[in-house]
Amino acid sequence: MNALASVVFVALVLLVATYLVAVIDATIMIRVSRGRGYTGVWMDPIARAARLMMQRGSRTERPDLQVWFLAPALLAGLGAVALASIPVAAAVHVADNGAGIVLFGAAMLQVMVAVFLHGWAANSVFPMLGAFRMAAAGMSMSIPFSLALITTALPAESLSVGAIIVSQEGLWNVVRQPLGLPVYLITALAFSFWGPMQLPDAADLAGGTTAEISGVALLVWRVARIGVLVALSAMGAAAFLGGYLGPVLPGWLWMMVKTAGLATVMVWSGHHFARMRIESVVFLGWTLLLPIALVDVFLSGALTL
Amino acid sequence: MSGVIDLLFWAFGASAVVTGWLVFRTDSMVRAAYWLMASFVAVGGILVLLDAQFLGLILILMMAGEMTIMAIFMVMFMMNPAGLNPMTMVHQHRASIISGAGAFIVLALVALFANFLAEPVPTGAEPTVDLGVELLGGSMLVFETAGVALLAVMIGAVALVSQQGRFGDAEAGSLEPSLETEGP
Q: Which domain holds residue A78?
């Protein structure tokens, strides 16, 4: 794909998908409670964005300004890089050459850096506590996350996401590797800091890393966070649910349906489960998900042989 | 296309050097750690240009975790309150200058006089497959020995630092001490 077209393509897909996730979020929200000034499911994300764009930005005492401004942009860029590694239809991809799944993993690990720096740069207590939470959650979840993901490369005998999708022609990985998708989804919650694992930006820290920002900076941060969720859902669909494979409907539509399905599961979890404590997240990662992910690797490896 | 690749190479090379220099120019431990990560990310980019996608990307992946751990450990072990105050990142000037200059001279001599291979990667080569065969084939003993040794060091380090838990000795568990005072 031509370079400029690729950039425009990823940006457009991310923009549309981000909007759709915000609509899903609002749809669930309306069932939970109808807020004041509510303008309907499809208008609500735009109304919220407009409200944020009219807010003035806030400032703390001696922040690390460059890092503070760049962290939301870094998070948005990482969502785009991660999404670029995933084929949206047969042979339609931007950056899935040879080691696409490693590119995706690298982008997700850098998400931890973006969130950590975002919290650190504000030079304020609550954002910094949020930053340390992200480091703890990211560290604990990164190994099970990578293991669950890399296991899908075993039947494909390739690190390319396209090859992983093709290898699921007969049987989706969600059936072939039943331990993979649950581990992936739980760890994905930590990397998109969403739902029960929304710890760095949690309400109990008065917003955590977002406690000191407002206006456009907050808008970019929230949009970027949804972008990361979209990329994680798309990778879940590609690695475990057969990506664009499916009968009757065109491939890109299957990809969209599966991605939206996984995104809905993750957004739904945020409205129905209590937020975990950071200690529980660390404990869950090291003592439960890591052994399960190792069993997943060994079983799938043995089956592949 | 090769013009773009040349341009990218020089951009990555320049940012690797400049961000490496900035590690020592900043006054913040967290910034120093992440400037070092930026330098490694640029090196990872060069590796990707060299058609070693797996090595380049895994470098970027690993550095995210490693530099975060390094930043947090530096902050934890500093007397400086929470590592938040500005502080100089350089010390032992004389030894640093001598070893830095020495390393530069050695590397420059290698760059000038070593007989580098000038073979382009053959088309159709699969660097990731070759790497896997090398890691679990010819060099398996070396890598597995190094891997087990590193694991032993990590477990040893954890055992050494976890002598004291939050409520006393590490092996005492994590039960809170009683509110009743003991003894007279």
A: 3-304
